[in-house]
Amino acid sequence: MHPLSRLACALLLAAPLFASAQVGKIGTADKSDPAEACTDFDAYANGQWLATTELPPDRARIGSFDALRVANDRLLETGLAELAANPARQTTPGLKLLAAQYRAGMDSAAIERRGLSAVQPWLARIDKAERAALPALIGEMARLQVAAPLAVFVGTDAKDATRHALLLSQAGLGLPDRDDYFGSDDNSRKLQAAYRVYAERLLKAAGAPADAATLDALMAFEKELAQASMTRVQRRDPNATYNVMTPASLKLQAPGFDWAGWLQAYAGLGERQMLIVGQPGFATGLAALAEQAPLDTWRTYLRVRALDAVAEFGPQPVASAYFDFYSGAIRGLKAAPPRVEQVILMVGGRTGGSPLGETLGEVFVDKAFSPLAQQRALAMVADIKTAMQRRIDNLTWMSAPTKALAQAKLAAMTVKIGGPETWKTYEGLALQPDDFAGNQLKIAAWHTAQRLAELKKPVDRSRWNTSPHIVNAFAAGGNQIVFPAGILQPPFFDEKADDASNYGGIGMVIGHEITHHFDDRGRQFDAVGNLRDWWQPADAAAYKARADRVAALYSSFEPVPGVRINGRQTLGENISDLAGVQIAYDGLQIALQRQRQSEKSAGKPATLVNGRTPEQRFFLSHATIWRGKYRTEALVDQLRTGQHSPGRWRILGPLSNIPAFAQAFSCKPGDAMVAGEPIVVW
Ligand SMILES: [Zn+2]
User: Fold this and answer.
1) How far apart (Å, rounded) are the C-alpha atoms in residues 115 and 33?
2) How do 275-277 and 160-170 pair as beta strands?
3) What total of structural domains would you count in the chain?
4) Is-contact 447 355, C-beta < 8 A?
């Protein structure tokens, strides 16, 4: 996912996490001690699973998301094998390209034979680059989506969602977070050492200098970049990261770097071209380095970035270095997952947003698209939107003018479910079935050219920016919510399950994504998705007071001794969980009421299944989808760099603040699962 993909809030950690566990049964409690429901609902609902599930060496985390991802990958694996073996099945341009890249990815002999040939021309240019050539080289590398260190891409203008704009963002750090360069704690030191080894292995594989002094200089160079970078919390402010500039104005504000030459190389555009600069301070820091850092250090840095871009797709020496750093050191994996899963992830990208990702969706939808799931999900969206509408009406802290605009925004929100109406045609892209890394760079360059050609065209709202096979959901720009076919599967959605389970599963996901457009960040965008303040000042202040309570609550959670959740970094997700569960619950009540009316059985006691009321099954379903077991490294990485709270806290945080939960399980004031003063944002 691009660093500036505004408002594309994924539901889950965007990292390659897998599981081999079976997809669990919805709405069953593993333990029957009723008291535990009120002291620790995660233990109550998932205790047996947590006690008996082992984390395999090739997984960073297991849970319902991961199990479903593996199940989806199994379907894709069959589909990909059929596709590659039968040219007659390659009926669309996308499927032809996918077949070629899948074969290339599975052909380890060809990958070894090709070596580093894909990146060799770039390494040769870096070897010869003089200081004056750096801006153009950086611009050209950005065409391959290599952020070294600038990420630049065509996105949506946050203040006019109908228009495209060139967005410029800080990037190009090798360590997971800017703070990692300054920490002297064990974790930071471990990551610094691991990155140094990774860079050394990449450089050696390419025959470039990799002595201690070279690596010291590289680390010092990146530390300067980190110093100029915003923190993750700062980057959540959509106004702070919206700075309209041009190469000409950057020349004044960030002197020392040939911004016009850089943009000419990236896009063939002139110095009057409007740019939206995410972090002007980063531009200034980069420009200072362009003038002052030793040329040899620049060359080392650019080599490492170029090699990093293809390492995963490359031969053993660089591929294993890549695995040891990203999967081993950062996420704690002990072994590599099956090759086909890796190839699916490399082709599709971690959130399904890679340019070729949609082709996996073509295969997936063919195997697993359920019109019934789509129909029922749409009905759930309608109920949950109605629930949100009623909650807005009933807010005691919001004035009528803000309420009217909030209602207008909710009414204008559009939904995408399943997959796109038409598949991309990939005109002008040709791939080789034996050049995995080379293809990857071709795909990136093709995508950049396509997007640049769209810069002056209006934004196409029907486009999918994520592949339908993904187990995730999104609150997308332009006031949209998106539910790929990949998540419309058990245990999130089961056409054989009752409403209680489905509202606690996919219903909660729907509530979460709706709320994203009303979380502390999303609320700053209006009904058409423009960044525009539509709030009465007193209402904004009242909202912030509630959001502050959410931040304080989650900052008090300590999933790993010494490592707490960052309540500010995860605020949007936590608000979306809190209200998301609540409106999904309200939506279930609307659905139950409708059923009771249609059965003419109003007043009949709630239907029990396995001795459970619908309300109990709703909350058990929620706990089932968020259960998870992590490697400590992966958990620490998520806590430090992620926007999402770990699964256990996505159960405990929201449910302890929802009075209907206490009611469903007869919890009493003073119980751990019952907040003294529940936080209600929406
Ligand atoms: Zn989210």
Assistant:
1) 59
2) parallel
3) 3
4) yes
